[in-house]
Amino acid sequence: MGFSYFQQASRRRGKVPGPVPQAEGLPSKAARKDRRSRGVALIIAIVSIALLTVVASEFAYNTRVDLQLAANQRDEVRAYYMARSGMSLGRLLLRFQKQVDQTPIPNPMAMLSQLGMGGPQPGAGGTQAFQPQSLNIQLWKLARVDCHMLKGLVKSDGAEGAEGAPVETDPVEVDPAFRMDDGDESAGAATQMAATMQRRSFGGFEGCFLATISDEEEKLNVMRLNTGGAEAQATAARMVDMFADKRFEFLWQQDDANRVRSTPQDTVIAMKDWADEDATQSALNPKDPTNPFQGGFADEGSAYSRYEPRYEVKNGRFDSLDELYRLHGVNDRFMAAFRDRLTVYPDINSKPNINTDDPIMLGLAIMSAADPNRPDPRLTDPVFLNELISRIRAARMFSFFGMSVADFLGVVEQAGIAVNPLIKGNVAQNRYLGDKSKTFTIKSVGEAGSVQKTLTAVIRLDDGLGKLVYYREE
Questions:
Q1: What CATH number has the domain bearing residue 233?
Q2: Does 46 map to a domain?
Q3: Alpha-carbon distance 403 to 397, whole Å?
Q4: DSSP label at 279?
Q5: Structural domain includes residue 117
Q6: 3-state DSSP call for residue 344?
Q7: What is the DSSP letter of 129?
Q8: 65 three-class SS
Q9: Three-class SS string for 393-458?
């Protein structure tokens, strides 16, 4: 049959050779190889998906970051120009303030005298009562300069009317001379797009701003310490009174960061010596109306030789109020207490304005109006002083033309306080008190999205929108 010897022998023994049987439950070699291949492919797929997920996540994150940066940059530009808008409107309001200050007040008695119906009424003692020559209304305190004022005055795209309904704007009309319908599809599409655009009028903007105006001449001008004579004496006396107030005693009981302790008089002298032209330390005599600062013998820079690092006295005009930090006796606590009551920006001949709302500055104005030769002990009583300040505020509220220096002196005299004859004898041209200001600070804050920009400018009124004295961006 063609069988070999071994096969025939096996048949005779009853055994037929065939495939070698495998152990039950064990996979074959091919199956194991196929299973290993499937495991490697699964690992490669998982790793690939993980890498793609990381790359996609990183790409999405970078896209979000770039988008947010672009949005912040856009909002920063918007906020900056919002602040610029508030600054410009504030300067425009101050321009109107100057016009109000120059508006003359008609004298009704003189008008009646011209019509032959009466004459001017004499004042006390047979003299002509003082009549204010111009208005003293503080327009910048009455108006609020912000974005809502503009949105309420002008119609803008997306703005709301008085009843909350949206204000519709007219579509843009395209001049027929500029129509391009000569077959150019792109030109026709541009013309159609321009025809459907909405006109955005003035005031149609996103974001908001708020501009606050403060009077620099309602504060004590540090530069007046270098005028010499009565102006320097009055300014130095008021500064010493303010610094030595019982409420601020704690400021002078500890050493500063340079381990130096000063007094109110030392700080006033340091302010004067920083801006004067000599190198000799001054000596203060607040009772001398002709020369309150006399030349001493010490070096005015001796106090700064103990600082680390050492520096010299400037002997020049202050550039900003923050320059006070370099003075002997001035630190963070001092500036926190007196920053809003000191200034270096007005003209050296400017007078403190009596139309201030600060009770401390009103108290100092009352002391300036009092006769130094006849001091009234009641001015040291805080209860009496607060009552007198309340009278001045009440008189200001009922003053139709605004409070003038004459009105201020009248309230002080009614309280029984002797008034300085140098002020009363020449109310219009006195050198101690004033009722109008020419230097103002405008702080404009613009906001767009989550970004804010703050612009601070000191403006001195002139024939235009004001002279820029100081400017800072934050």
A1: 1.10.40.60
A2: no
A3: 9
A4: S
A5: no
A6: coil
A7: P
A8: helix
A9: HHHHHCCCCCCCHHHHHHHHHHCCCCECHHHHCCCCCCCCCECCCCEEEEEEEEEECCEEEEEEEE
Q: How many residues does the chain have?
A: 474
Residue 364 covered by a domain: no
For residue 257, give its domain range.
224-341
User: 156 lies in a domain?
Assistant: no
> pLDDT digit of tens for each residue in the chain (474 aa)?
455 555 555 555 555 555 555 555 556 666 666 666 667 778 888 999 999 999 999 999 999 999 999 988 999 999 999 999 999 999 999 999 998 888 887 665 555 555 555 444 444 443 344 556 677 888 888 888 888 876 666 655 544 444 444 444 455 454 554 454 555 555 565 666 555 555 555 556 788 899 999 999 999 999 999 888 888 888 999 999 999 988 898 889 888 777 778 899 999 999 999 998 888 888 888 777 778 888 878 888 888 888 888 888 999 899 999 999 999 889 899 999 999 999 999 999 899 999 998 999 999 999 999 998 888 889 888 899 999 999 999 988 887 778 889 899 999 999 999 998 988 888 888 888 988 999 999 999 999 988 999 999 999 998 888 899 999 998
Q: How many domains does the chain have?
A: 1
Strand 220-221 relative to strand 342-343: parallel, antiparallel, unpaired?
A: parallel
